[in-house]
From TrEMBL:
GO MF term list: ATP binding; methyltransferase activity; tRNA binding; tRNA-uridine 2-sulfurtransferase activity
Residue segments, region Interaction with tRNA: 137-139
Gene expressing this chain: mnmA
Free-text function comment from the UniProt entry: Catalyzes the 2-thiolation of uridine at the wobble position (U34) of tRNA, leading to the formation of s(2)U34.
Main localization (coarse): cytoplasm
Statement: the UniProt record of this protein carries the keyword Methyltransferase: yes
Keywords: ATP-binding, Cytoplasm, Disulfide bond, Methyltransferase, Nucleotide-binding, RNA-binding, Transferase, tRNA processing, tRNA-binding
Official protein name in the record: tRNA-specific 2-thiouridylase MnmA
EC number annotated for this UniProt entry: 2.8.1.13
Claim: Lipid biosynthesis is one of the keywords in the record: no
Assigned protein family: Belongs to the MnmA/TRMU family.
Gene Ontology CC, one term: cytoplasm
Amino acid sequence: MSGGVDSAVAAARAVEAGHDVTGVHLALSSNPQTFRSGARGCCTLEDSRDARRAADVIGIPFYIWDMAERFREDVVEDFVAEYAAGRTPNPCLRCNEKIKFAAVLDRAVALGFDAVVTGHHARLADGVLRRSVDPGKDQSYVLAVLNSAQLSRAIFPLGDITKEEVRAEAARRGLSVADKPDSHDICFIADGDTRGFLNSRLGNTPGDIVDADSGEVVGTHTGSHQYTVGQRHGLGLNRPAPDGRPRYVLSITPVDNRVTVGPREALDVDVVHGERPVWLGAEPDSMPLECQVQLRAHGECHPATLTWDADRLTARLHRPAKGVAAGQAMVVYRPDADGDVVLASATIDHTETRRPSLV
């Protein structure tokens, strides 16, 4: 129970379904601030108190579990290391994979519980994970890192209702969090200043910003970790493009601390390679597989042809995608009459652009 409306309603629904429920709030910061900054961040003292009040209303036991050290090692340090390596991570995926459905699930099972219930907006039935009925709040993308064993001990009670219906249900149940703002951005960067957060840990490492076409240095930076593929604003270039069009970040190479920029069309990607694949069900009997792939949280889905070997997924997109960043997840869906089914995920390793066979 995070202290938000989704987890509170999920807990209430689990009780109503006949389960023996205990509420758990995760203390993920060793020095939590007292109050949230608007809708940014989470896991504050205020949030823990909101969670406790919700548990009291629902009528369930409530505990706070200290996961700060595990969260720092598995999520925060991974986040910093990925940016230092020129990649753009999604910490919500790591948190689900390493904390909520690993550390928390392991402790829960050891204590005699059968499953972990969360307020994620996704549907799960008979081991099959599907998108939520609310496409604007669907969180199946950040749950696609879970394996079949983890999904077998997961319950997502909110996948069949919209966020508006969640709030209305919370109000009917007398939960004070009914109108509480959603948390946004990265939970451990409460002020939303990701660049400042990374600078405080990685320091200033000056380098060049280079134009992809001419090879000329068109600007400088104080750390390649401050950039991500597809970024347009905040580049600080001191030389405009010859045609006057804006430039975008095309690649980041930490080895020589170089950021390469170029025109928007150079962001087109035709082939996406993913490492460390996770199949949420049985591995497919045959390849290639026609599917849909989502390449960033809340991003659009792309029709693709998927191939797979023991340690890699490769998606050949039917139409180019723009600004695909290494470190994000490639999540594979199968369109279905009852809602898209999540088949697999992998961490994007590298991409290919303008392959002649696809033109």
